[in-house]
## 1
Amino acid sequence: MREVKKNTKGRYLARTLSYPALLLETVLVSAACAVLALTVNAVRAEGISLIQKTEYEILVPCPETTGEVETLSPDVVRGASRAARVIDARPKADFETWHVPQARSVPYDYLEPVSGATLRDIASSGAKRVIVYGDGADPDCGEHLARELAGKGIKNVGFIKGGAPALMGSSREGGRP
Amino acid sequence: MKRLLDWRGHAFFGLPIRLYLGVIFLMACYHKIVDPGAFAVDIATYQILPLSLINLMAIVLPWIELAAGLMLVLGFRGRTGALLVAGMMAMFSVAVSIAVARGLDMSCGCFASQGANEDPISWRTIVRDVIWLSLAVYVVVFDRRPIGLDRLFARPKPAEAAPLATENQK
């Protein structure tokens, strides 16, 4: 129902819409906007197709790998005590082909941050030192994982310079799973 | 409650809120209308909508933002504009909350297609969106006779004007 009121100066005030009328008007405005938008999109040069056929390439920033880490020689792994946690940052397939016996696989992904579960596992392991090795390439996934772990609060993190190839060259103690 | 709703001061509180929200939405819609392709990528980054709806959303939503912004600034169907804004802010708040809960490192895509390093989403973005949603709800509920074109051009129909004119003569 329309509601027209008059103020003290004799001027008419705007009508107040009921909520259903307000909702209806909102739907109508949205529909009008949709028609206008689709028309403009159809005639303009920058218009895009109504339905996207291929997946959009979503760009996400790489995780920050800014932590302070120690650069270690391959011999450190051989002399590492049980209080040290050794982490293999290479892909799972490489880990299954060869790894340091006590190592745990944490494949490093340059786009995805290390999961909270992995961080909690490392933090709660009681390890006094965390030794990470990767593929030894440039960039080295082991160094990046070590920096990310250190940046997220894990203490005493170091990476093996040269990664798995350096370890394989210096020691034949690695075993197949 | 009726006295609260009828209080004339709401129009004076509502005016700056309407102008604030209106300008924000006019600013927000600009880059989306100019470059719908970039906005479509922003929507896709949320990973919420199916691929088939992303472009439709990227084409239509900025024009609704434009309409809502103009309605709020001009005071033309101000409550309708505020309801549009409230609906969009509710939608944006849910989308940003889902993205934050998933740990997505991204920009909200609200005002320009920025990288996550420039304007990353966080709980602050959610708080900001909820504040804007609250302001829009205030206008919908309380600013019933908004200052602006609605008030300027309000005229009763002849049938309604007649009894009022008689009342004036008395």
Note: The two ends of chain A are 79 Å apart (CA to CA).
## 2
Amino acid sequence: MWDYSDKVKEHFFQPRNAGVLEGANGVGDVGSISCGDALRLMLKVEPETDIILDAHFQTFGCGSAIASSSALTEMIKGKTLDEALKVSNQDIADYLDGLPPEKMHCSVMGREALQAAVANYRGEVWSDDHEEGALVCKCFAIDAVLIEDTIRANELCSVQDVTNYTKAGGGCSSCHEGIEEILAKVMAERGESFKPGAQPKEEAAPAGMTNLQRIRKIEAVLESVRPQLKRDGGDIELVDVDGKTIYVNMTGACAGCQMEALTLQGIQQKLMEELKEFIKIVPTKVSSLTRAMKG
Amino acid sequence: MTGIYFDNNATTRVDPAVVEAMLPYFTEQFGNPSSMHSFGNKVGLAIKKARMQVQELLGAEHDSEIIFTSCGTESDSTALISALKAQPERKEIITTTVEHPAILTLCTWLEKDGYKVHLLKVDGKGRLDLDEYKKLLSDQVAVVSVMWANNETGTFFPVVEMAELANAAGAMFHTDAVQAVGKVPLNLKDTKIDMLSVSGHKLHAPKGIGVLYLKRGTRFRPLLRGGHQERGRRAGTENTTSIVGLGKAAEMALEAMQYENTEVARLRDKLEAGILAKVPRAFVTGDPSNRLPNTCNIAFEFIEGEAILLLLNKFGIAASSGSACTSGSLEPSHVMRAMGIPYTAAHGTVRFSLSRYSTEAEVDRVIAVVPEIIAQLRKLSPYWEGDGPKAEPEKAFAPTYA
């Protein structure tokens, strides 16, 4: 049995905005019948303002597919098309208080239906650039297609590389056998064979980011959580970035707070999503200045 | 816990009489059967009795043909790996496309070591083509492994006949009979079946106990090596309590054999007919004329199985589904795909599996609830309109496939 949140259950048992929407002027059909999910999203958009007046859905799919569809319609009603397009699949999952990793693709389908429906309204053709494979890493919900593509694009040759680039395998490590199999397959394509002891590639700047871009991105994430920390009388400061380790200093009410570990975990997750790599966040009690002086 | 439990092919409730038989072996009879003192001796005798009870249920010629293991999967792995190790000159395995993962995943793994695995196909009703099988049998085949009854549809395979053919070709024959044992009368001494897997928790014994039947004279190479338990064929201290429990469960299954095949079958037929009479666009999968007495697998078109299960669960009804979503995989059940069931139906398959504890009132309740649930989900389905599917449903809704 899936560990569905109460919110998911509620949206499944009492779906909002289900059924055909009369007078819809933007319709998006997406899905994958082989994996058992398909969704039609119907929008009624006011042409003068681009505001979504109403949104309905019809879904062939499991409990979380229906709940994701229902949540999506609730989230986008009243928004302009441009505002609505900012809704990410993570936003849909968050709205539902989270989805099991195996079910994150349901929220991706919601996001794609939205893009397809907006394209349909605007008279554009939406083409899907996202192919989905079997789920390999259950800790971070990474599928086989993403891992394969990343190995191919970056000529990766070790499990550690794959973890650095995709996060896959960075958690419980049970999927390492599966990752090794994918490595062996893709490496064979380029005439190499997989060796378990191979050195990971250079750690610098995965996903094509320079160190400066990377640090700016980290600062931006910290900036985005700062208001929330300040509301609780605390703050966070970036101390140093050393490869995969990001040192921060929790100050004010945050320092030593019992929720500190929990807060840091949330920030770490956010950073990993933004940087698209596996990083570790480590709290330190020294300020950036002291650390710099110690050299 | 109350509710209607129609998921007995997944696991069964341990019979209270089985629990009662087991309890003393946790406390006063805690000895190790290998020990010389009387603490161990009594336990040894209890295991001997359990072995004979299982022997009787299987219709085995000797009690020494019964090897206690930890589960059906261990029995399957032991049987196949033993057959390959004992006959290193033979490099081929024959099995079917619809086996349980305990066999299929193992075979995929063995392929990496250079073994050739032949998968027998099934037709739309889940039946094998024996001519295809006969053509594949050769002096290269080490072992044939074919399930007695399919766990999803309940469909039987002609294992007794297939074992004769394997034997004539000099290949060993194994059958995963975890769904059949306790529901089908067995008389292994009159067959050419060399090895057979049993799982205790499918017949009202606890989880964590299984049996590998090994016909006397079958060449064998143990998987777990160590102590002399099970005559050195399965090392490791015996799971004494569960062995005692399985013995009692085997005895009770034998007593209930006629009831399973008459009354349970009648309830199953009533359930199936009742649902099909009220729900349009639904059909039975597998071969209804040749299947387990307790199993019924219905495909509900244009809706998805997990959603059906969640709503059934809300009414306190437990069943299972072949949909992709219930397993977390991207594909619906390999059994449904092997039978060529279209995706729009394969995702909506629901298996109801009864037991000797199922009642008429439970069947009536499920017949009353299911049509509402199906109608409710079809209202949400983009393939459905009003009282029936859209004209040419696959064209009316043809999403961009991600």
Note: Residues 312 and 318 of chain B are 7 Å apart (CA to CA).
